[in-house]
Amino acid sequence: MSEQRNSSQSDSLPYLKKLDPVLMNPKRFMIATLLYIFGPKSVGDIAKALNLSLGDVDNHLRRMKREGYIELRRTPTLRGPRVFARLTAKGIEEYERLVDNLKNFASGLRRELMGTSIGINHSQSSL
Question: Beta-strand (E) ranges in the chain?
């Protein structure tokens, strides 16, 4: 059993190595997802949508900007200047790559688990 567990872990290792360490942070992943789905958003809108503090959002946006995943643009509005964030082409590419790698990891893990649970009928609910 120990060998089988070690084999499963080593089979998963290539997928884990492909996961982007910057976007794997849960808050940065949520920010990237929000920007990917809805497009450019103000820092305040990001904080409000994700229930995060402005300081927390600012900190994560600076890290994402340093990696080249987002652009920040200061824009004058009727309520004063606002900072808007948007994903760059690199940010979109890395986000899509991460999502694909997570899907592949989950599929591989599911296949491994299905292979180790011989004799269990997965189509029936225990409730």
Answer: 41-42, 70-75, 82-87
